[in-house]
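Dear support,

I submitted the protein below through the web form. The confirmation email said the job was done, but the results page showed an empty box. After a refresh the structure appeared. I'm attaching both so you can tell me whether what I see now is the final result or a partial one.
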Amino acid sequence: MKIHKIKSGNVNCYIAADGDSAILIDTGTRKYREKILKKCMEFHVKLIVLTHGHMDHCQNAAYLSKALAVPIAMSKEDMNLIPDNKTQHLSAKTILGKMVLAISLKSFDKDSLESFEPEVFLKSGSNLKAYGVNAEVIELPGHTNGSVGLKIGDKLFVGDALMNMFYPTISMLYTDEKLMRQSAMRISNMGKLQIYFGHGKMVENRAWIKGVTK
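What the results page shows now:
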């Protein structure tokens, strides 16, 4: 299994490739669509997986799905974000979190998201072997209602269920703080893993909530 990160501004997209099969994890923003498509063309991408429905992670979903002729997978719980990213209310507590929230809300207002229809709906226990990659779906609600992670071997792709924009931490923005913290604890309790974020560099798994051990 090989992982290829496509850095798209401050957003990370990933191609997970196993032999002649690959999946794309998240799709970035419109500005980087050609860069992402060019990288995808190096592989036989069979599925686009969205970790959640926020614009910076799925703005190119419709475009790339058409260009690559592949289906889109996401949680049903985030379907209401496709027409309007403000459907699920976001909150933040920290100063940095409030700064990121203000920038995010501004982008939701001024930008647009091309509508798309997912063909695959993700939930805990699902596996993507049918698309050539042994990836286990982990539900990680809190940042959004339908946030999911993908466990591929000793690697966990968490989207924004955890963040590393400034430093590794629990999600600074959340629809449901209690669920977000529970998801962070769930990740901690999964043991030794490499954590791949939607924003920032990979780190080793750790106790994300004080008092919780791996």
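Response: this is the final, complete result; the empty box was a page-load delay. The mean pLDDT is 96.
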